[in-house]
Amino acid sequence: MAALSQPEDNSEHVTLMLRKENKCFMPKETPDQRCDVKLVVEDGKEFKAHKHVLSEASPFFEKLLNSPMKESREGIVRLEMFSESAMRDTLQFIYTGDVQILAEENAKDLVVSADYFLLPSLKPLAERALVGMLNISNCISVYYLCQTYQCQELLAKTKKYILANFTSLYETNREEVLNMSSKEMEMWLSSDDINVSAEEDVYKIILAWINHDRNKRQKYFAELFHHVRLVFASRDFLSSDILMNDLVKDNDSCLNRAAEAINFIDSQNYGNLSTSPRKSLETSVIVITTAVRPNRERSKTVLGNWDLSGQPILCYFPGEGRWCKLGEMPREWLGQGEFIFCRGKLYGKNLGSFRKRPEFPLFGPLTIAIACYNPYSNCWTKLPYVYGGSDRVLREIFVGSDNEIYALESEKEVVAYRRERWYREALKEVEYEETRYVSFIRKYKVESNSWEDVTSFRHLRRKQDFCIVSKDDFVYCIGGVERCGKLVVKIFTDVYRYDLSRSQWDKVADIQEPKTLLSGIVCNGKIFITGKVELGMNETSQCEVYSETTNEWQFIASLNIRPEASPKLLSADDQLYALGSCMWNEGDSTPDTRVECYDADKNEWILKTEIPIRIRSNSRRAVNAYSARIFKGFLSNHQLKSHNPWRYFPEVGEGNCVIM
User: Is residue 300 part of a domain?
Assistant: First the structure.
């Protein structure tokens, strides 16, 4: 059989043909439709066109050519501000509804002509072309063009490009950057998204901008210096470069800020840190907390024989493939497992004791204690108890895409009715009245240490162990089970989502396979879930992915992690990870404690590393994991030390912890 020939690379030929087509385009005359208007552009070049075509396409021409004005009477419109190529491209769009934009100047000209001739459909074409042509050399000029002609979509993408490439832009087009206005410099340098290699670079750029015209610009120094996040600069740089600079020494406010930053670094009192590092100075990490839960029956007599404190908070750096110890769990928070990472801090939820009251014989009022761990200071802070109300039970706590903390609560009747009654009615398949199953989403106000209701709904009914995933303005509630004690009565596949912006619930496509032990995450704009599925005699950690554009769930490769390891999905640097850790039993030489990474091209999960800790616990999930971002300068801090691998924590009564 003859070998199949490879297609020729004719992209250059196609480009030449398109240029020829653009160059040759002219409105055509017919005996029935003669060109009745003449457009005169730069250098006296003339274009013949049809008045009715121009009028129908452009409000500018419609008003000009259908009025008692000179242009309408003479049939000549002078547009010397436009080049020949710009007018040819504009006419091609007017006549055909499309145009090939082959060069940056063409795209810029079409933005101008679209604005001038009021052609709203042409401007997006030119904007999309310019987005693909953005580079270090033209991004500033494109930015100014966007401002002048109100290209909002292109403006946003150009700003994003400039911020992402600011260091390269400064090095390559230094003169353009130094010629910016003070307001422009303030806008760029104050952004969280500006890409710099160190906070010191921001200060150096400010000095260069001031010295470019020192006599006129030094009055702006204090205003710009305010946007340098001094606590994230090195102490040596603060003391040697900043404190010794004349502009700093001549301004008491600047001098005090620099001195306070040095004192702040020396005190290591990062618990009061009021600012955050820039995103380019952060790195993605996976934070792991242990979840040892002591056996209560044995803890009364043997708890004092060994110290439960000192369980490490581990940190894994996917880009470097290394583990470090971030901090330690306080004794009173061991085994709770309800933690979330929000705004650079780890928040933990602990339930207060239920106090019995006559009106609530089964359950008393619920109180919630919130603990906050700050990785920069390696310290825990207890926030005051929050009273949750006597008629609700907290079911889940999660972080929304707006980086706010949310809680999912339900009326106690949903989860607290007697087991015998539940089992009896479940077997009879009796449907409860939906009005008795009200749940609530509440938002946590960190400043006031209070909760506010966001919405109430009845979709969850008797579900437990459902999966909550937050994406953009939506909160997805996925699957879940109905239990009678430890017996699973029903496994749900339905998926609902709540729109926080519209306060509205929608039903979306069901997941394809019923699953228990669900975990979900958003990665690269898609929702991924995993859960336990029984296939014949085997159990597997099956995975599915949801696409909002198609409203469909699709299977992807199953995890290599066993379901009993309660795998959890995480996203770091737009890469999908799965982490699983099960109890380490006697005789188990290969505990399932691993981190896997998903390769979308090969549709397979690849082992990245083993979790360097073994835990004996009666908790379902031996460890809990959370994706986060940490200041890169923190990597050199003494708190991040290499962690001794294969340390395990015993069951109560076994004795002290052992380093293996």
Answer: yes
